[in-house]
Amino acid sequence: MRLWHPLLLSLAFASSALAQNAPQAGLNEEAVPAVMQRAVDDVIRPGYRNAQQSAARLTTAMKDLCDNGTQQTLDKAKSAFDDTIRYWSIIEIVQTGPVIQDNLFEHILFYPDRKGVGLKQVQALIAKADPKDTTVDAIAGKSVALQGLTALEYVLYGTGSEDLTTQKNGFRCQYGAAVAGNIQREAGEVVAAWEKPDGVQASWKHPGPQSQDFMDNKEAVTALLGILVHGAETVRDQRLEQFYKGKDSTPRPRMAIYWRSKNTWKSMTANLEGLRTLWQKAGMADLLPPDSKPIADAIDANFKSLLETVPKLNPDIEVATSDAERAKLDALLASSRELITKISDDYGSAVGLSAGFSFSDGD
């Protein structure tokens, strides 16, 4: 299941005049090649490499836990899991390119599971405890709900997880190790695709007739804008509104991603770090006209505010959504919506582009 249908890379010149006294719209096309190169070499490729390497450490930690189920090895496995959540969440914002081919994204992260179907599948597989389901190959051939981070979170934190320290090489642990190995392998496939010199990295760095992705600079920039907008919408729609839609709604804390491991806000923080890294390291502000610096400053300030706020929220989502804490979430909702507007409307208009999007939440 995809969070969204694949990003449609479309381009439309701003069709209406900007407000009086607003900066003149116009893309700085001379800056595009350098921006695309930095996006690929300084953000996307290292991001996937970090996620794959973290998954490799997680696989090792899970195998150690299975061989020697002590509180120490369990703590190390959980720490490695937290580490993988962080590195995956940073690069998770890039939901275009190789990661959306062959459902690779869903193999790593199946979320949201609105009706609990995936959870039931994980519980049923653990209850059945078939030794055949303890290899990477076996897991890779099953439902996406059984082979990614949310499945592994249940192994480590869900009902019955005490078995991890009472049963040496028990089924639950071996299944978890296989899931970790599958995440490592899937991430490795994405890394391999981006590392191929004449593959997607060359296509992204050199828009034009020779590119398989972008026929010109404007399409390439629209793709980067799409990553930012969709990523910001993920933070709002899939990370926050999935369980809290505002003060007049009933919170659903157990719909929050990674609520069992208390990684909800850590993941959201990493999502925001990934977006800011793309914005800053790629130098996307360089694409703005010279008189549009206030737009870049406003986006920087919004990122700074969000990244200062989110890590301070209570990691226990039940507590975070209590009446006493809801004002903080209301402020977060407002700030996340503001970020989307600044990127999509203000920045997009200033560079003379509008991002064309087609996405669905799976309903």
Biggest sheet layout: none
How many structural domains in the coordinates? Answer: 2
Give the helix level as a range of percent.
Answer: 55-70%
| Distance separating the two termini | 11 Å
Signal peptide: 1-19
Protein name: Imelysin-like domain-containing protein
Keywords: Signal
Subcellular location: Cell envelope
Question: How is this fold's topology laid out?
Answer:
Elements: H1 32-67, H2 71-91, H3 104-108, H4 117-128, H5 136-140, H6 149-157, H7 171-195, H8 200-205, H9 217-240, H10 264-281, H11 293-309, H12 317-320, H13 326-350
Helix pairs in contact: 1-2, 1-7, 1-9, 1-10, 2-6, 2-10, 6-7, 9-10, 9-13, 10-11, 11-13
What is the structure about, briefly put?
By secondary structure, the chain is mostly helical. 57% of the residues lie in helices and 0% in strands.
Account of the protein in words:
- The structure is a single chain.
- With 363 residues, the chain is mostly helical.
- It is built from 13 helices and no strands.
- The termini are close together.
- Residues 44-341 form the Imelysin-like domain.
- It comes from Rhizobium grahamii.
Provide the descriptors you would attach to this structure in a database record:
single chain, 363 residues, mainly alpha, Four Helix Bundle (Hemerythrin (Met), subunit A), A middle domain of Talin 1, 2 domains, disordered N terminus, disordered C terminus
